[in-house]
Every structure is written in C-alpha cells, then in structure tokens.
Fold each of these.
Amino acid sequence: MEKAYNLREMSLMDIQQECLTILKDVHQFCVDHQINYTLCGGTLLGAIRHNGYIPWDDDIDIAMPRPDYDRFIQIYQSKNGYQLFAAEKKNCKGVKIAFARVCDMHKTYVDTNFIPWNEVETGLWIDVFPLDGANDNIIEVKKKTSQIIMIWRLCIFHRIGYGDLSKKKYIGKKLRTLFLKVFYLNKVGCVIDKLTKLHIRQCRYWDYSQCNYFTSFTFPKHGIKEYLPQSMLATYSLHVFEDTHFYVMDQYDEWLKALFGDYMKLPPLEQRIGNGHENIYYWREKV
C-alpha cells in the first residue's frame, strides 16, 4: 500500500454508494455504445424486491450476452477514471478470474489477500459476467457444467493458496499457501493463470450465436439452474435501483425463480447476512 495514504475501513453504506457510482458509469457507457446488459443475481433480486440493494448486500453484479461482453471488455473507457480488468482483455495480465471487474483505483482499497484475484491492487468494483451459449441437449450441458465447476473450484483452491503468506490470518490458509509455493516452486500464479485460461476456453465451448440457450459458465455456483432460453435476453427495460434506473431483462421472473424460488419472500432473520466475502474495504485518505 502506498505510504502517502492512510486506510479507514468503509461502512456497508459506503460500499453500496461507491459501487452504485461505478454502476452509473458503466450504465452510461453501455447506453452510449449500444451494449446490452442486465442486473443479475442478488442485484437483480434487490431491484425487483427492494427497488435497490438487498439491505444487507455489499456488491453489484451485471451480466451481458457473450457478444456484448466481448465488445465491452475491449472498448470500455471510463470518464471517471475507473479501470476494467479481464483476463481476455488486451494488455491486461495477472487477472485470475474468468469474468470482468470494473474497479475504482483512486478513492478506495480492497484487501483481497484471502482469495486474491488480481496481481494489481484495486479498490471497490462491480462484477461483469458474460452469459455463454449452451447446447440444446441438456445432458451435454450438464456434463460441460460439471467439468467447468471442477476447473472453477480448482482455481479457487489455488487462489486461496496464493498471495502474501505473512498476511494469511488462519493457520490452514498459511499452510496451504506454503505448500503450494513449495510444490510449484513459487510459481502458483502461473498455474492459476493457466487454469483461468482453461476455464474461459471451456466457457466458450459452444458458439453463442448458434445456441438457443444461455448459462453462467464463468461463475457456475448455481450449476444447471441458470440454463435458460436466450429468448429471455431479447428485450430489456429500465428499472428503479436506489436513486436511478438501470436495465433488467424483461423476462427476469424465470431467472429469479430458478435461483431463489419464491424470491419476493424475505428470508428468515438469521439468513439476512452478506455474501460472506472475506475482503476488507477501505477509504484511501491522503496523509
């Protein structure tokens, strides 16, 4: 961390407000360049159920059909100084995830040493996921999804064992980091890069333009639940989210039901917690 800055931990409200500011920047760029996107995951659920954030949520997710995503990661330029990181972007090395993030690089800092995702220190970000094409044969899609989940989990395993050994808080993480550094002769990062490239190749296994279905291969946490018709991505409408409006797919109901079931029903009090991110978020304050 630069010596010219002190770090002050951010509140949940701080995090939400700063992520919202990044989203506004991305939204305007997509409008100006006719790039389709939709709020997704918990952000989409928050928009529909709360007209904004799920009160205990601390991140923002958007998704794009693969062709729009490919254009976005190559041409995105922020008027507000945000920076896009994606493993597939030209001249963007050291990214160890299969999707993109748009990051603040000036006002905030995020300690990601628990599960590092980038060789460059960044501040707050929003996630940008590509939606990939999937075959009509669901059996084949299940097989491919299982393969991708295995690669994804292997990459996470290695990422937990990557980074600065001295900053690992738990003995298990310290031992894993030490083992991987010794086993790979201190080249764990190179192994993760290869796994990330393999993950992306598998995500692109089917040509999006030749498919009738899409799924979220780059973040396959929900498995086959996100195997849905591409016709759902045909049209988008603006929907209120906090103090402005962002795009959501018109046929969001099927997606939300697949992920959350009765999504308008609030979870029990004990489940109203954040995503379990191990990151620590800070303001950068000049000395």
Amino acid sequence: MKHISFVDTSLRDGPQSLWNGRITTSMMLPIAPVIDRVGFEALDFMALISMDWCIRNLGENPWDRMRLMAQAMPNTPLIVGGVLRNFGNVPDSVTEYWALKIAEAGAQRIRINDPCHDTVQVKKAIQWSRAAGMTTMLALIFSQSPAHTDEYYGQKALEFAQAGADRLFIKDVDGLLTPERTRTLVKAIRRKVDGVPLEIHGHCTTGLEPLCYLEAIKLGVETVHTAVAPLANGPSQPSVDNILRNAERMGFRHDLNTSALAEMTEHFRFIAHNEGFATGAPVEFDLFQYEHQLPGGMLSNYQAELDKRGLGDKLEDLLREVALIRRELGYPIMVTPLSQYIGAQAILNYTLGERYKIVSDEIIKYALGHFGELIAPVEKEVMDKIKRLPRAKELQNWEPPQKPLEQLRQEVGKDLSDDEFLLRVLSSNQEAVDRVLAAGAQDYQYPRADQPVLAMVRKLLTDRGKTCVQVETEGFSLTLN
C-alpha cells in the first residue's frame, strides 16, 4: 500500500489566506501539544515577511513565537522561509545570518521561493540554509503562460536538484492548476529529478486544487500541504479531512492521529467563532483567475486598498489592467513580491489617465533584469516607454546594497542582541519594534474549545460595559464583580 504524508498550513498560509494573518501566538500555543501528536511530516509555520507582520500588526515578537512553538512541538519540524532574495535594502549578509538564527530558534526546514526561479539566487539560499543545518525545500512556482511550459519546470527542477535542494514542491499560489495540467507537469518533473522528494502546495482559488492533489499523489507526489477545515478552501489550501478521506479510498495509508486532528480542528473552529473570523468554503470556478492570476489571499487586500482610494467598484477594471501588465512584462509569476508590484502599477496606470506615465522603481528594476533573468521579453513598446523615463536611466546600473554584517552592526547598534539586530534590520516600522521590545515577555493565554465556560467568563470580563458577571448551573453559582 502506498503512503502519503501531510504538511499542515493551519498556522501560516491558512490564516494568511483567510484571516488576513490575524493569528496570534496565544491562539497557537495552547493547542501546540495536540498538533504535535497529529503526526504531520512538518508544519508550515512562518515566512520571512510574516516576521515583520507579527511586529507591525500583532504587536508580537516573532522570535518568541518561534522558540515557544518549537519547544511545545518537539516532534514536528517547523518550516520557515519565503523569498530569500534581496528586492530592497537587505544585504545578503543579513539574510544568511537570519537563516542561521531561525535554525537556532527551532526551524528545521526552510522554504525557498524565488519568483524568477533564478538559479544563481537559489544556489546562495541553499548554501546559507545548509550551513545552518536546515533541510531545503525549493519551490517550483506554477504559472499559466506560453512561456511556463512543462519543459520549463522540468529543467528548473533539474537545476534546483543539482544545486543541492533536498526537496522540491510545486507551489500553485494562484490556484491555476487543472487535473489535466497536473498530470503532465508532475510527469515532466519526475522525468528530470526522479528520486528527489516531491510535494504539492496549492490554493483552492478556482476550486480545482483538491482534484489536482489527488492526481499528483497518483503520480508519485509523496507529500501534500493541507489545512484543517476551518482554515482550508477558498483562497487557502485543500482540507486535510477531504484529502485524507479520498486518499484512503484510493488505497493510500498515512500516519495521522485522527483523534488529535479532530481536536485541533475544533480548536480553530472555536477561534473562528470566538473572533468572528471567516471559515473557508469551496468556491465556484472562475475563468477570469487565469487572466489576472492575482493570488486569492491578495484579492481581499487589493479590494480593501481600492476602497480606501475610492475605487472599490473598479476591481474588475483593475484586474483587467493587471492581466494586461503581466502580459506586457513577459508573464512574471504573480507571487510575492511581484504580484504586489504589478497590482500597484495597475492602480497608477488606471488613475493617471496614461499607462506607464509613472512607473514604480520595482517595475523598472524587473524590466531591466535586476531581479533575475526574464522568462519572456518585455513587449517592445512598453520597454521603450520605460527606458525613456529619467528614473530608468538612474536605475540602469542598480545593484542591491551589500554590506558586511560587522558594518551593519556598527550602524544599527553594536550592543544589540541578535534578535533585536535582525528585527531592526528587517522591519519596516521601527516604532513597532520599540513597542514590542518594551512590552517584554507576554502572557500567551487563550481559552481552549474544550473549556467553553472559562472562555465565556474571560470574554465577559474583558467587556468594559459589564460591571458584574454571574454564572449559575444546578448546584453552583459564581459571581464576579
């Protein structure tokens, strides 16, 4: 009987896709020992970008989160990672040091997602990660275009394997795979790198991803990335319950403790109800997704940004502009940070009345090849317009700033702890860092789903409109003032 393993995404990509990242350490920590008993191969836990999110939007120290959760789940490897190339002002020396420090904090696997599949950048990231003692997972980020062929992905898989990748995973961030394309894609990758463990991580944006997962495991994909039901479907990953049930019917065995899984699921269902968060649900198929290819989790944020600008009713127009820009730029993959760059450029083109009248530095750098080799050339008319911009001339010879760690230590603060140094270099909001560090150790308490009375009392006591709470059951009365 064939075996299938599961990576859980309920603590990172699930809430990022459905809850706008609003999951706190206190929501994770009480259930961590239960999660550790489920038997997941690993846990998709944190991204480089979500460390800054923890600070800016949750007021939490991401180093505390990582260490506490690693201690609470000694049997489940934590996956940390994301885009490890320099798109801004972070030198390679910092990213290399960050890889070492997350390994020390408890990360055992690292996801390396390069939006351009740039083998030069990938080799550096593998070198840093292996030196830190982590297992490397390399993303083959799927996209639909004339240039993103099965042959292209097979060749990239071979390059990454030869560069030293321990594992490969198909990353369908925009939910574009179909069962038919999954069959040809997996076969093309397998032909090039048979023997390297292959995983699949996809989003249910078009509703087809569960079918694609089943096709993938038929063809030898060993590991699937899923979330518990309250954090699955919609723009998130497929439900572990659904994939597990169907995989069993196909003759696959697994190592999951279904009792612990049910307890974990109920915990996050309780959180969703308690916090008023949406729970995932299957979506209807949308052919328009294949044109604009904006990630499902980004769509809600994009809509919110348009609402702030008074363009809330223009979403479909803006998505058409996104699709056009993507084609003109040679089909960049719509994944962080490129999807954000193109989304912002679409707003500029739409609101200024002249397309590419103003072009962001990021789009200019992409067109000039500073972010890696382009899979297809930028259309000539657009490229000519970009090159005529004064800013393009200034950025023609741009290179990412590279400073040694010792110099940055002197500039940022030579007496800072490693944690604070990295937070300050990587964060976009120094005032938020100040607040988090000033707060010190936090009390990460959250009511459990199996303690409903205690949860109710805590909730009532935090309501300033209440002066007295009385709980009564047969033979028992409690009054709190």
Amino acid sequence: MGEKLDKRTKWSYCIGATGRDMAYTLVSMFLITYIQYTMKLTVAQFATISAIVVVCLIWDAFNDPLMGIIIENANLKGGKFRPWILLGCILNAFVIIGLFTIRPEGWGFVFFFGVGYLLWGMTYTMNDIAYWGMLPSLSSDPKERNTLVTVMGVFICIGQFSVAGLLPDMVAGNAVMAYRIAAIVIASCFLAFQLLTFFGCKERTRKKNPEVLSLKDMFKIFLRNDQLIAIGIAVLLFQIGSGLLIMIGMNFFYFEFGYGIGGNLVFWFTVMYGLGTLISEALFSTMSAHFSRKQIITASTVLIILGYLCFLSAGYLLPKTVVVLNIIGFVIFFAQGAFNMTMIVMLNNTIEYDEYKFNERHDSVISAVRSFATKLAGAIDQGAMALILIISGIYAISQSISNLEVEAGRGVLSHDEVIVSADSFISQATAVQRLILRLGIVVVPIIAITVAYVIIRKKYIIDEKKYDELVSEIAKRKEV
C-alpha cells in the first residue's frame, strides 16, 4: 500500500488537465480549419502546410520517448516533473498565440507555420510527457491511482468540450478575430491551470533508476513481442479511422447546411461525441463482466460500419436531418469508445505477456507505443484530410470564403454580409463534390477499423483465459 495522496495534490493535478486539453484541442482540431477559412493560400501552399503537419507529427511521435529519456535523466532542483510541466506550458502558450495571430502572406506564412508548428509539437511534448509521467509517481496505491485517472478524465472532457463544442459556433462571420481571441484566452487558461498543478502538487522523492532504457532498447522490446506488435498496429489503424469524422466535420456541416448554421450543428454533433464516448467508457466494466473482449470488439466493429454507412446514406436513403445525423454520430462514437477501451486493456495485457516470455517487465514501453501510434495516426489523418479537401474541390471553394473572412477581419464586411456571401459560394458546390467529401469521411474509417479488427481476431491471442494463465505462471515463478 502506497502513501496517502493529499487532497491538494490530487485536485491540483486533476484540475490542471482542463487547460492542457483546451490548448491541445484548439490546435489539433481547429488550426488547419483556421488556415483553410482565414488565409488566402494557393492549393500548393495549403498542400505544403499539410505536408509540414504530417512530417512534424511523425517527428513528434519519435520525440515522445526521447523526451521521456531526457526527463528520466534530468536532476532538476524543482523536482523530476514539475519544472518540465511549467516550462513546456509557458513556451507552448506563446507558440499557440503566435500561430493564431501572426499572419504573413503566401509562402511567408508557410515558412512561419512550419517553424511554429514544429515548436508547438516539441513544447507540448515537454509538458505532456512530464504531466503524464508524474501520474504514477503521485501514489503507488492502485485504487488511488484509478480514482486519480477517473477524476482527471472528467476534467479532460471538460477541457476538450469547452473548445470543441463551443468554438465552432463562434467563428463564422468574423473568424480572424474570433480565432485570435480564442487563442489568447485558451493559452492563458493553459498557463493558469498548469500553474495550479505546478504550485499545488507535491512531488514525492523517488529513488532514481540506475538503468534507463535507451530508444534502441525500447524498440527492441517492441519488436520481440509479437502480441504488442499486433495490437500496436491495430491501435494505429483504429486511431486513423476514428479521427477523420471529427477533423472534417466542420467542412461537412458547412457544405451540407450552410456557413451560418453549420457551426451550431457542429456543437450538437460534438455533444454526441462527448456523450457517446463517456457513456461507453462508463459502461465498459459492466460490458466486460458480461461479454468477452473479442465479443465487444466484434459488436463495436459492426456498429461502427453500420453507423458510417448510415452517415453516407443520409440525404439519399435516410433523411438528412439534424436529429438523424446526431443519432448516427452517437452510435459511431459510442462504438468507437468501446472499441478503444477494449484495445487499451489488450495493449496493457502485453506487459504480462512480455514478462512471461522474457522475464522482464517494461510498463513504460506500453505508454510509448500507444502515444507513438496516436501521433503517427494524426499525421496520416492530416494528410488524408488535405487530399480529401483538395480532390473534392472543397478547398478551392473555401478559399472564396477565406477572402470574405479576411475582409471581415479588416472591418470591410459585416458578420451578416460574410454569412450571405459564404452561403452563395457554398451553393456552388456540386452534388459530386459533396459526395466525394462524404466518401472520404466514410471509406477511410471503415477500411482502417475493419483491418484493425481482422488483425486482432487473427493475430491477438491473449484472451481472458490466456491472460489468467500468464498471470498465474508469473506468480508461480516469483514464489520459487
């Protein structure tokens, strides 16, 4: 049993997650949309920016374990994690404000964005790895850790939803100023919440581990574990499939319902995202008590495919109404939440599999694999989104709207004038262009998540019975 976690540390740590996820959601969900609808860029310039995002996210995926090694080897006066949390937060807040306020034109903006986005990823990683690294150091009591994760999850959702749900309804018609104000407010919240964590959390003194894994060691452990490879690839494919709907959602609602009302509809769709994910996570332990993990994965895959097919058919076979789309969204997000929770358990179970086969236990590698897969999936999704927008012709139309937003930012056009003119441009989009956009949102997730399911069914062998055998055998070895 570990030391009792004091309430001040517990709440300072958990509440601090709110600002972090506000800042991350702003950049990950809205930066490209901000550029698409407020910067006058050619297709070549937009494609280059998308390529920069892909390259930076791939670098960021490799940078996670590197940052972990740096933090592990550092010996700073303020503690092992707190100095990195504060430094990363301060630097990242300034970068966020710069990305949404500094506006050179043309290729000058492309260059500025490349430098700024690289700095954003590196400074956020500095804060992110230190923040999550602090979690297991706060308490060694499993029950207390679970409580900490649960409470923190609530504040993570508050941070995500406060940006993802509210911002889309505020930007249309004065996007340049709205994004600028949002960036300043959210960056300030990021700093304020992380200052709470910095000053409120009490780090415990831990004995320094004399043997620190190198990056080469980490990949060696990954490659020797066939079950970790299988579930790691499945996690990557799932993350690719589950990200596009939210990323391209604003474009879909703009072009299906209009520029003025589209942001409001994104808000309600985001509510479905939050509800679906939270309910599936809350019910996961109950589902696990009645069904096997592979049964949950199978049912989730079927629901996801049916949900996306219904999304594709809305307006053709099914009514294209807000109610119908929100019901479809809830089903998709609920199923994706259950699929994701099951994969997290499967991924964690490879720790005991590795210990069983090689008599070594490396919990940290699991976190690195999941983080690596998430960042790499984000890079692939960014590239896919850019291709879908360019190939469908949606990007070209959105540039006409971008011109309007630039004029509104200069005070030349009013909010209402922007909305009316934007809707006239959107009405020029053909049925084929809208269909291509919708196919891009639907086809990639169906293929990626289906392949992830097949890999799990064919290659992953650690079911409930097998896991119990592994744990039992490991316990026997320790008794000898």
Amino acid sequence: MYKTYIKRGCDIIASFLLLIIFLPLCFVVAIAIKLDSKGPVFADVPERVGQDGKTFKMYKFRSMIQNAHLLLRTDKRFKQLYEEYKKGSYKLRNDPRITKVGKFIRKHSLDEIPQFLNVLMGEMSIVGPRAYYPDELENQQKEHPRTKEFVQAALSVKPGITGLWQVSGRSEVNFDKRIAIDAKYAYDVSLVQDLFIIIKTPIIMVTGRGAI
C-alpha cells in the first residue's frame, strides 16, 4: 500500500509545498549563477535512467561551465579528465568545469532543488535510488558485472532526490557499493526508512559531507 499509493501522494504534497518554500532561495541561486558565469540557469545534462529503464530529463541548477557534459565527452582537452571520470565511478574530486557558485550549491545540494518538478511530474520520488546516466550504467556494469542484479532492483523504483546512498557517504561511495545500497533501498521500501532518510538529509546538506 505505501509503496504503490501513499508514497506517491506524499511526494506530490511535499514537493509542491517545498517548491513554494524554496522559491525565494531559487531566485537567489539563479541570480548568482547568471552573475558568476555564462550560460543558462538550468544544467544542460544528458537524460537519466528512471524507473523500469525509462529515460527522462532531470532538472538541476547549473553548477558547471556551459555544455560541461558534452565537452567532457567530446573535447580533446578533457580526454584525460574523462578517463579519470570513468575510473572514479563517474565522479571527479577536482573538477575544473565547476564554477565558483557551482561549488557552493553542489556542496549544500542546492542544485538539486529543481528536481521537485520531476517529482511532481511523476518521474522521480523525494526518496529513492540515484538517477544514473545511461552510459554510466552500461560502462559500470561492464566494470562490475556482479552488479547487474542490483541495477535491476534499483531501476524497479523511481529514482529519488535523496536516498539511502546519499546519506551513507554520497560521492565517497564507489559504484559497486553505491548500487548495492540503492538495491537494498528498493528491496525494503517503507515509510520508516523514508522518514529516516528525510530526517538525515538536512544534516548532510548543511555539512556538505561527501559532496564533490
């Protein structure tokens, strides 16, 4: 009952209210982004993989230079950086593409606020597994073939703005451990677990622990 109906109802109500609450902060972040660097307010990122493998456009505030994701994959200047990106479980500890404002909003997860729009549209949930990039899932499963079962489990539910892995180490956790945590969440979706994650999330946001 909770997983099928109650969770979706809570997502709609909570995301609507939080969008209203965060609206003034969103204006401040948007202005800071425009003053700090050229480019749009929202990030131009590849689609993510959602529930049942369906792809969707995730809304995020731009924290990097314009066309950062495309440049990483196609610009020869970033060839070595892209190799480091793949070896580091699709995370970079020192990413030169991140702007000054971007560094701050990423540390405190402010770039994630627009994802409440994805929740309202039914593409995401407030709590759930990480929304992975298609090439990330493909390449990481080749690197970690034993994770395929975990990937299937993680994709059986909607990805979340926050989740069990985010409050368990965030970017400090590599893919094989991260997808195992996501799978564990998917196997045991419950109101108690979601409340635990929601309560712990603000602490992670304020401290910026594990953020890259």
